[in-house]
């Protein structure tokens, strides 16, 4: 069930990137797809019965691997950076063009 919702989120973002003509909508769709991918990694790395990797010398536990958590945090930060960079690009395009529709921008910049 949860895997289906995550796959639906990824596909929603993917088709939003392909079908939407507005640049802002494409950026939002890319963020939705990125959220789905991060949720998928969290789902895959989740195991019941594991404890957070904080050492407790009094008890013997199986600890969760902290590397996937670090990778996901890095992916979130990189995704935010890429999204910010794309928004700056859209702002610069909006200065020269009255619209953010990709078809209109391509027509106005075609020699």
UniProtKB/TrEMBL annotation:
GO terms for cellular component: plasma membrane. The chain crosses the membrane at residues 6-23, 35-55, 67-90. It is found in: Cell membrane. InterPro entries: CPA3_antiporter_subunitC, NUOK/Mnh_C1-like. Keywords: Cell membrane, Membrane, Transmembrane, Transmembrane helix. It holds the Pfam family Oxidored_q2. It is a multi-pass membrane protein. The keyword Kinase does not apply. The keyword DNA-binding does not apply. Belongs to the CPA3 antiporters (TC 2.A.63) subunit C family. This is Cation:proton antiporter subunit C. It comes from Romeriopsis navalis LEGE 11480.
């Amino acid at each position: 069930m949860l895997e289906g919702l995550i796959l639906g989120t990824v596909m929603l973002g993917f088709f939003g990137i392909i079908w939407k003509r507005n640049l802002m909508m494409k950026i939002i769709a890319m963020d939705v797809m990125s959220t789905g991918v991060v949720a998928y990694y969290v789902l895959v790395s989740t195991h019941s019965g594991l404890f957070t990797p904080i050492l407790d010398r009094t008890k013997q536990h199986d600890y969760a691997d902290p590397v996937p958590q670090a990778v996901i945090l890095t992916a979130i930060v990189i995704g935010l950076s890429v999204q910010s960079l794309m928004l700056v690009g859209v702002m610069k395009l909006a200065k020269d063009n009255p619209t953010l529709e990709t078809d209109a921008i391509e027509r106005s910049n075609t020699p």
